[in-house]
UniProtKB/TrEMBL annotation:
This is SET domain-containing protein. InterPro entries: SET_dom, SET_dom_sf. Its EC number is 2.1.1.-. One of its GO terms (molecular function) is methyltransferase activity. Keywords: Methyltransferase, Transferase. It comes from the Bacteria. Residues 4-111 form the SET domain. One of its GO terms (biological process) is methylation. SUPFAM superfamilies: SET domain. Signal peptide: none annotated.
Length: 203
């Protein structure tokens, strides 16, 4: 499920991407796996023809239980940036780690999808911190995850202060969301190993 105020438009780096149509404040839960997202079980994934799997894996992502999830409401069109404004480290939802201005592209970091081991892509973000090639192995690099952690924890401190359009979806599904809403803000306190690749509704 994707928060409000985000629309699909032509992208500079890819064919299409997600763009803010209104300010999305830091601390906003931007997207989360939900029961409306398309799912293929581990057995269904194994039975997919190779080309079909490749196509689905481009837009979807593998969950920890081996199933494949295609995020609903266009959330699967979120492009990668090495300076992503949405991160999900230790969370089962993506959080805005800085204010996203109207017209700005909404991006996440594909290196966070560590369950998709061995995956890589040439990056087109051309940001100052561009890693050139983005790989899911980078999601295990302490230098990369340390920067993500600082940004996510800063955003978690703002989570209780901002409007949360996804509240009704997240409140019953996400334990990390509930803890952050109660004012906990370090990943040690909030996370308990949560990940968008192991969302609570799957467990
Ligand atoms: Zn969904
Ligand atoms: Zn890049």
């Amino acid at each position: 499920m994707l928060t409000k105020g985000i629309d699909v438009r032509a992208s500079r780096t890819h064919n299409v991407g997600l763009f803010a149509t209104e300010t999305v404040p830091a601390g906003t839960a931007v997207w989360a796996p939900c029961t409306k997202c398309s799912r293929w079980s581990k057995e269904e994934v194994a039975a997919l023809p190779e080309a079909r799997f490749t196509a689905l894996d481009t837009y979807g992502h593998l969950l920890r239980d081996g199933s494949l999830l295609l995020p609903c409401l266009g959330a699967y069109l979120m492009n990668h940036s090495c300076e992503a404004n949405v991160l999900d480290l230790g969370l089962d939802f993506g959080i805005a780690v800085r204010d996203i201005a109207p017209g700005e592209e909404v991006t996440c970091d594909y290196a966070t999808f560590v369950e998709d081991a061995g995956w890589s892509m040439r990056c087109l973000c051309r940001g100052p911190g561009c890693r050139g090639t983005v790989t899911t192995d980078q999601g295990g690099d302490p230098a990369v995850t340390g920067r993500w952690k600082d940004r996510v924890e800063q955003a978690l401190r703002q989570l209780p202060e901002v409007d949360q359009p996804l509240h009704d979806i997240l409140a019953p599904l996400s334990e990390p969301y509930g803890r952050a809403l109660r004012g906990l803000s370090t990943l040690d306190q909030v996370s308990s190993g949560a990940s968008v690749c192991a969302p609570s509704f799957v467990r």
